[in-house]
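One chain given next:
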Amino acid sequence: MLDEYVSRKYRDDWRPPVDANLIKNKVAIVGIGQTKFTRDSQRDELEMAVESIKAAVDDAGLKMEDIDGMEMFTIDRLAMPMVISTLGMKNIRFTSEVSFGGGAACAVTMHAAAAVATGATNYVVCFRSLNEASGQRYGRGDSYADYMLKAVTPHYGYHWPFGFVTPLAWAGVWGKRWMHEFGITREQIGWWPVVLRENAQNNPNAIYHGRPITHQDYMESPMIVDPLKLHDCCVDTDGACAYIVTTVERARDLQQTPAVILAAAQSCPMEQEIQTIYSRPVISGLVETWYAGQELYRIAEVGPDDIDVAQLYDPYSIGGIIQLEELGFCERGESGRFIEGGDNIRVGGKIPVNTSGGLLSEAYIHGFNLVIEGVRQIRGTSTNQVDNVELSMVTAGPGVPSSGIILRKD
């Protein structure tokens, strides 16, 4: 099955594109900001977006009139001009939006970096603001259809009439196949949420700070959608995150240690859908993550052994775990054994992951909080700091057109 997975249609046909050094080492993330993460913000998304952007601007040592570019998702619940007017930004010369939900989490970084590198703009702010817990929840069936139709995904017409309407259900299909194909056990999967909850205990901004769990707690938690138990699922969150991208030359004159973008990549392979990736020859993997990873390593001229810390998009535990295989941190089908006991993915382990608690235990801000934690690891300011970090990887959503970045110290 592994040979079939590697060879059929996809991976043997991968060819690197033309040289992609336009962004490499020329652009950096210089300011980060966020609101408090809560389960009931009692504020609207605009107010939280403005707070996070102001925090990022202040963190970088910039003024609001310096910002002349803006990046966001197509499925945001507020309009870009509203943010610009509320903040009193003088003139935004570049804007861009990226689709595919969580798959865009690092794609917006790539778009912002390309705009800065080409001189289209000087300082781009990327932001995401959500009331996922108290407002309209991404993935809740009773309010989902109108929301997701904005993503232009007509294949859902084959699923929604039958009540097959949530990301957890969609992922459960290929997750169950992955478990069957490689003998992955529920006990092994449980170590991912346990370690991430451990990380959250050192992070006062995490939703689950002060609420640890044991492996036994995980095993005894209720089933949500087989094979996903309660603690396998991300935490619906109210909050916002923002960060600012500019050139390395400008970054060196600002007040924070720049997180230089060594590589950025996107991927949307053949037979790609939004989570319902059931038409592929093999559905027990995340080929879009593999493609993005190959491109990241090619551009950066590094391999998985060179990555010091990784923030892997985990809307559910299996999405993060399978990425360990696709990105080369362990062999295909070996991730269950790789994470068993948790030591390989803890701080000090082979590849520390989701050091702020990830989407499972810190917050679900569509991966923007993962980018911010990736920057903190480069700065040396994480609440679960990995020693001597040189390279920090961040990935976007699994099972969708996806993206990723590698950050380095200047």
Notes: The longest helix spans residues 45-60. Confidence is low (pLDDT under 50) at residues 1-9. The CA atoms of residues 125 and 244 lie 4 Å apart. The two ends are 43 Å apart (CA to CA).
